[in-house]
Structures are given as structure tokens and as C-alpha cells.
Amino acid sequence: MDSQKVDMFILTNGRFFESYHLGQIRDRLLTMDESKWFILQTVQFKDPTISLIVSLIGGPFGIDRFLIGDTGLGVGKLLTCGGLGIWTVIDWFLIMRATREKNMITLQQILY
Amino acid sequence: MPLRCNRFYLYAALALVAGYAWVIINITNYEKTKTSSAVPCLFKTVTGIPCPSCGSTRTVLSLIKGDFHQATEYNPVGFFLTLVLVISPLWIIFDITSGRTSLLNFYKRAENFLKRRPVTAVFLLIIMAIWVRNIIKGF
Q1: Given CA atoms A110, A112, B6, B9 in this order, what sign does their dihedral have?
Q2: Per the CB 3.0–4.6 Å rule, which of A3, B39, B43, B106 could disulfide with B51?
Q3: Residue A72: its chain B contacts at CB < 8 A?
């Protein structure tokens, strides 16, 4: 894939990933062929900021974990009053990173 | 066990320790006042409305006392939590000593099962029903 397209992808979607992912993404995208470009355009990533807002508001119900696809953890959070309140607070700090890691897993399924 | 599996077991063990600690902290207080000592529910503190799992501590404590009837007065979620608290340590020890990952496999299968649309819908309905019951009962 030509480097202009790759840079455009990273510019528009960079915030969905952890910074240390970006180098790996760029290298992999450069070696990929053009046919995957359309799929890349259409895939939906989860916004870490939205996850944070959901965590702040609905954290005790585990909605933030459900949003990023961690159904098991979400159920655990829901059934324990947000992990006795402690997990709710911990997730306020962890959820953005967790969202970005999940996005990377989604992307890797397309890249590889 | 590879590293990723270790993390799951570590977190599971930590969660169990926290759960047991919570039960132990509450058990002496429960003898005197029949309520839990502190309300950890952020939702209830902020809005005054109980959340779907409010009352589960009291259920667990009632079951420890052997008072099954009193336990049914509170939250059904507490029964599930009691099961988890009792079975999980044994399962974790079994997995560690035999080098298998059966608990992790079960967890993953359960998660995939819950993700199915009809299952999610039924689960949500049950949670809503419990929540409404909590609010009516004034937890």
C-alpha cells in the first residue's frame, strides 16, 4: 500500500491505538496490498473518549466493559456493584487503554 | 501456563481475595445490625436508588449463617456470588496443580454464550427484574 494512504490512515485513526502500536501498524500497512484498503476504511473502531465517558457515568453497571466487548468482566462488574466501587474507580483509569488494546486486536484481524 | 493465562488466574485470585475480605469485614457488623457496614455502591450513594446487585452482600452473609429463608429476602444475585466464592478457589487450585486451564476455557465459553443476542436479551431482562424488585423492596 502506498505511503500516502498509510499516513492518511494513521492520521485519522491514530487516536484509536496505543502509541507503541502505531509503528507496527505502519510497517504492516506498507507491506500490504491495495485490496485491503477498502476494508480498512469501513471497519469501526471504538473511541476511547466515549468509553471514558460511559465509564464515568455507567461504570458501576459495567456498561463500559460491555461497550468494549469484555462481556465477562462487564457481568462481573454488574453483579458486584461495580466491584465494590473499587473496580469502578480503577476502570476510570484503565478503560481508555483497554479500548485501544481492543481496537488493536480488531485491526490485527484485518492486517493478518 | 503461558503468560496470558497467568494474568487471568492472578486477577481471579485477587478478586476472590477481595470478595472474601469484604465478607469478613461485614460479618461481625452483620451480627449486630443485620445490614452491611458500608455501601460500596456508587450509584446508590449518588442517586439514592439501589443498583441491581444491592443486597447481595446481605444474601451471602445470611447463607453463611445458614439462614436460607432470610437469604431469599435479599438479592438472588447473592446466591450466584456465593457459588462463585465457594467453587472458584477450588477450581483455581485444581487448575494450578494439574497445569490445565479449564477455568479460563470455561470463562471464555461462558462469555461467548452470553454474547449471543437472545441470551443477552434474557440476561438483561432478568437483571432489570431484579433491579425493579430491589427498588420496590427499598434496598
Answers
A1: positive
A2: B43
A3: 107, 110-111, 114
- Cα(B3)–Cα(B90) distance, integer angstroms: 21
Number of domains, chain B: 1
Instruction: Flag if B53 and A78 touch (Cβ within 8 Å).
Output: yes
Residue B23 domain boundaries: 3-137
Give residue-wise pLDDT tens across range A21-33: 999 999 999 998 8
The secondary structure of residue B35, as a DSSP letter, is: S
Q: Is the CB of A62 inside 8 Å of chain B's CB atoms?
A: no
What's the distance, CA A67 to chain centroid? 10
In tens, the pLDDT along A44-99 reads 999 999 999 999 999 999 999 999 999 999 999 999 988 888 899 999 999 999 99
Q: What is the C-alpha to C-alpha distance for residues A3 and A24, in angstroms, rounded to an integer?
A: 14
Angle between helix B102-115 and helix B3-33 axes, rounded to 10 deg:
80
CA distance B97 to chain A (A): 25
CA–CA separation, B26 vs B32, rounded Å?
10
Alpha-carbon gap, residue B125 to B123, rounded angstroms: 5
Would the pTM of this model clear 0.95, i.e. be above it?
no
Strand, coil or helix: what is A79?
helix
pLDDT tens for B26-43 read 887 766 666 555 666 777
Tell me: the pLDDT tens digits for B86-131? 999 999 999 888 888 899 999 999 999 999 999 999 999 999 999 9
Task: Nearest by CB to B41, from A60, A71, A72: name it.
Answer: A60
